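Quick one: structure tokens for this chain, please?
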Amino acid sequence: MKVSVIIPAAGASRRFGGKRKKIFEHLKGRPVFIRSIELFVNRDDVCQVQLVVAAEDMEIMKTRYAASVGFMGVKLTLGGPERTDSVRNALAEVCEQAEYVCVHDAARPCVSAVWIDAVFSAAAKTGSAILAYPVHGTLKRVGPARRILGTADRDGLWEAQTPQVFRTELLRRAYQAAKAPAGDDAALVEAIGQSVAVVPGDPRNVKITTRSDLALAAAVVDGLPKPKLEKSRGPFEEAQW
């Protein structure tokens, strides 16, 4: 299994606030996007890592972070106005030997190698798999005046996470058929009638959107599960995909 990893990092960080984009904020001493890259660059099954950045950030990536990005062998790819545009640009640059493509948010630096192993394994069996976590809280639909309009049924609802992994030709086909931006890559694959396997994730897989998310990530990043020397069979391996 050879995997090309696409890390979209071209967002505007409007909800994060401040003078610096969230991907450049430090998490325990290292920029958020560097921590996300580090999850993949030393894996034997990863043959390519692309960091997709906004045009206004390309210069700082090539100057301030050139040593780190260059040392890790990361390819810089120009992003687009929407996340879907950014991933589409990176798909055009995926190397020939990549049988699978993994898309992982630059703003999700708290992922254990155990979880990456799980979603890679599931994708190898099924052709497409994502990390996701069951919704446990009560969901309220709220109107413009911040008044509750109704309560959603959470039965069967899972919150999608990344990494999301797909056969290369399948993800390319999904993007070719896409008519509008989507919330994640799995939605585009679903839209062409392909099923996507779900691998149980973890609430510690935080997506940094606000400053409070950054504080939460700092609290959990050092306590993530570590791979065992002998990998035991997990639920994802026993499931009949």
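The radius of gyration is 18 Å.
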